[in-house]
Known about the structure:
By secondary structure, the chain is α/β, with parallel strands linked by helices. Helices cover 39% and strands 14% of the residues.
Amino acid sequence: xxxxxxxxxxxxxxxxxxxxxxxxxxxxxxxxxxxxxxxxxxxxxxxxxxxxxxxxxxxxxxxxxxxxxxxxxxxxxxxxxxxxxxxxxxxxxxxxxxxxxxxxxxxxxxxxxxxxxxxxxxxxxxxxxxxxxxxxxxxxxxxxxxxxxxxxxxxxxxxxxxxxxxxxxxxxxxxxxxxxxxxxxxxxxxxxxxxxxxxxxxxxxxxxxxxxxxxxxxxxxxxxxxxxxxxxxxxxxxxxxxxxxxxxxxxxxxxxxxxxxxxxxxxxxxxxxxxxxxxxxxxxxxxxxxxxxxxxxxxxxxxxxxxxxxxxxxxxxxxxxxxxxxxxxxxxxxxxxxxxxxxxxxxxxxxxxxxxxxxxxxxxxxxxxxxxxxxxxxxxxxxx
Length: 384
Ligand code: GLN
């Protein structure tokens, strides 16, 4: 038999999603893949329970009422006028949005700047799009970047920069000043910016989310990717989107059309109820996640487990250096099997040879978090 595609040789299946399967196998409290164990808002479920939902293909770029509701909501939060008819393509999650954005912008051989640590998908996205990542480190403990290092990366004439803000896995929320510095370089070196803003509504005071596309002059070179997964607790509905100028969306629509045809029609219909919710919903979401963050971090402090403090999103990194493991993947397997808590090995997120960190998330009911903390008390059993 002939060899299968060499394109896929450069990456493995997702370790994040593999850890969910391992957690299921050992009955571990799954704090690996980031998704909630609580229900979406009632308003969405009520629509989902109706009998007259659409069951055939929606318009390929997204159902008209979904795009209109999305344009209105994002215009409200970004302050930008967004045309639902020419500036949006609705995708199967931000995962497809990012892949489609990368294929819209890049030819094989093009370079893209990726901050490290980075969300695991970007590596595979780049390979599948034939692009070559240039990694720029975000330096702990505050995960800032060195502007000179970033400019050096821009000197290599990348086609685009990938910006995950708020950032998974390090919880960084880029400041306006940092974003302005990135914008100045994107302009100077004529690069596109592809954003992944799925945690746009999960930000902890005093930090604030600034939409990159809303910076002066940036809309024209930004492909804003996001999803409804985290905002409305519907990760399994797979609803995401790209917003960009019409000329870019024309191309992104072609990629999307042949990748997936479209996102699920009945779910788009139900999600409109979410997009139409007022400011109070987003305020309550922030409050909920702030409480979860505090509960989980306080619990870890009580166990004397050192951790990062996220400014946004719902992930923390733990340092496992003292446990004497050579492989963070092995540590996570043992953590799931012996302690009963699912985590993701940090090496999935770093370009650098990092294997002393693991990632946990706290998008769970308080009772689940308390159970996880209870189990984490046994983490010392793993010490070699
Ligand atoms: N963003 C989530 C995480 O990092 C998972 C998303 C996914 O698996 N598609 O865990």
